[in-house]
Amino acid sequence: MCEHHSPEPTSRLSRRGLLRGGAVTLGLAVGGNVLMPGKAFAADYYHPFSGYPLTGTWQDHLDAGSLGGLDYGMSVGTPLRAAGAGTITNIPYNGTGGHTVTISHSNGYRTQYMHLSSFSLSNGAWIGMGGVVGLSGGQPGAPGSGSSTGPHVHWHMINPSGVRINPLDYLGGGGGGLPKTTTEEDGVPGPVMWMRTQNWLRIESGYTGPIDGVPGVNTYAALQRNMRDHWGYTGPIDGVPGTYTWMAVQRLAAAWGYTGPVDGVMGPNSWRGFARFINQDSWD
Ligand SMILES: [Zn+2]
């Protein structure tokens, strides 16, 4: 499906697979990471494509004479999210790779995304984990598709020595989920809590923005939809949470051990209850 290896017919992508391709499942390896100079820190990365069908394995690539890669089938125009934070380099015509984005990460590793239909950012731009590097492509013959024979993204990592490596090896078997938020202990909402919240809202309530831990109007609108659907919120879906939105969140928290008032004022105990909910493995 990609450069230097045998094509994967588009027809082998099931309709279900394509539908599943509409949702990105996050996976983020956290086990056993120790911050050491020059050592990879896998918790700084997640697997942005784990919710899509793997249509070309690393070994498939090697067998076809490629230096390696992973192909994930997805409809043209799917937002491609950064596996980790870093600096963007766009390579408009990267031979068989077509439109290619390279992210240079702070630990010397790079990730590359190939066969894009469009770029999102300029050269030298900074991107956070989960930000959109561009839109997927791969339609045969389309600008930027390179040698691709069907819609997909090709993804690989490059280590600091310049050797291509399998992201799944690096992340430890494909990622073990988003880290748990410490809000459950300290009652203080932070970026990890909001990343998990965004992923929960992506799964349950149609949130389509970045999983970046920075809640904005879209995050709050999805939160309001969830509160309307499950926790008795009847106010507007305007992305501006007020007392009634937070009262609904407190009702959720009460189902997870919060015993304080339902007054719309989120204190540490309200957040602890919410965090117990959001720390469930199902929202990894
Ligand atoms: Zn490939």
UniProtKB/TrEMBL annotation:
NCBIfam families: TAT_signal_seq
Domain M23ase beta-sheet core: 69-167
Top-rank lineage group of the source organism: Bacteria
SUPFAM superfamilies linked to this entry: Duplicated hybrid motif, PGBD-like
Gene3D superfamilies for this protein: Glucose Permease (Domain IIA), PGBD-like superfamily/PGBD
InterPro entries membership: Cell_wall_metabolism_enzyme, Dup_hybrid_motif, M23ase_b-sheet_dom, PGBD-like_sf, PGBDSf, TAT_signal, TAT_signal_bac_arc
GO MF annotations in UniProt: metalloendopeptidase activity
Organism: Wenjunlia vitaminophila
Listed name of the protein: Peptidase M23
